[in-house]
Design goal:
28% of the residues lie in helices and 30% in strands. The protein is α+β, with helices and mostly antiparallel strands and 151 residues long. The termini are far apart.
Length: 151
């Protein structure tokens, strides 16, 4: 829960986690990689909801178009937005505030979808293990092992 009292962007004075002490919360941006062209830095913020722990960078990468770089309490992530012309231009034209909240929405949609897919796959393998349908076979002439679920 944010206790800033008014919308604050990371890097501005006025951040408060307890409503009593106020300070500046420094943005922690994800590292850029070779070939990244920085489009926008989008530091965490509040305003309706507390999103101080999510700092975003929007970068252009030659092969993938726009990518969203995210830094949060769990580390850093890189998400392909596959935004070329004209969608890339639309995203770049957004105000920093509108762009931040859109990127925050896209990040959480992607994160929830990945978590859901992982959960479903884990359940499938658990069910196969309980029914003893997991099969393995060592590949000839190597150290690799093939693993699959038998129908």
């Amino acid at each position: 829960m944010c206790c800033c009292g008014k919308p604050i962007i990371n890097g501005e004075d006025g951040y408060s986690w307890d409503g009593k002490s106020f300070s500046v919360r420094k943005p922690f941006y994800p590292e850029l990689e070779e070939g990244d062209t920085l489009v926008k830095d989008l530091p965490g913020r509040c305003g309706g909801i507390d999103s101080h722990s999510f700092d975003f960078r929007l970068v252009r990468v030659p092969i993938y178009g726009l990518q969203l770089l995210v830094h949060h309490g769990g580390g850093s992530e890189r998400i392909n937005l596959h935004a070329y012309k004209p969608s890339g231009s639309i995203i770049e034209a957004l105000s920093d505030s509108d762009c931040y909240w859109l990127m925050q929405t896209l990040y959480h949609v992607q994160s929830d979808a990945a978590r859901d897919a992982q959960s479903k796959e884990a359940h499938r393998w658990q069910k196969a293990a309980a029914c003893k349908r997991i099969k393995t076979r060592k590949q000839r002439g190597g150290d690799s092992i093939r693993v699959w679920i038998e129908n």
